[in-house]
Design a protein that fits this description.
This protein has 108 residues and is mainly alpha-helical. Helices cover 42% and strands 10% of the residues.
């Protein structure tokens, strides 16, 4: 899906921000838990407050993704919700290392 997303990123530059998250790297596991992502690939469209607007699971065509993005942009514009895209994501939930260690012990 990378070539499709790259094309959409160029097509919608300045209107929305794309973030690629890998499930097994950096904050990927935390983000997957926060948004309850279980399948790959998953495309989430979220607002600037981190609220999910739309979710597509599995491989998608460029046409389908374009259609969904255009619908979201039109809906947001109609409701006066469009603002300049943010370069940052909302804060991620943090993990309590003490609870993680305890969970690991219980699991083992």
């Amino acid at each position: 899906m990378k070539p499709i997303v790259d094309g959409l990123e160029a097509q919608f530059a300045g209107q929305i921000t794309f973030q690629r998250i890998k499930a097994d790297e950096q904050d990927g596991p935390v983000i997957m838990r926060a948004y309850r992502i279980q399948g790959h690939p998953t495309v989430l469209i979220i607002d600037q407050q981190g609220q999910e607007i739309n979710r597509l699971i599995g491989p998608q065509s460029a046409e389908k993704l374009t259609e969904v993005i255009q619908q979201v942009l039109a809906s947001a514009a109609g409701q006066g919700l469009l603002a300049a895209p943010s370069a940052t994501l909302p804060p991620l939930p943090t993990l309590d290392t003490t609870k993680v260690a305890l969970g690991r012990q219980v699991y083992l």
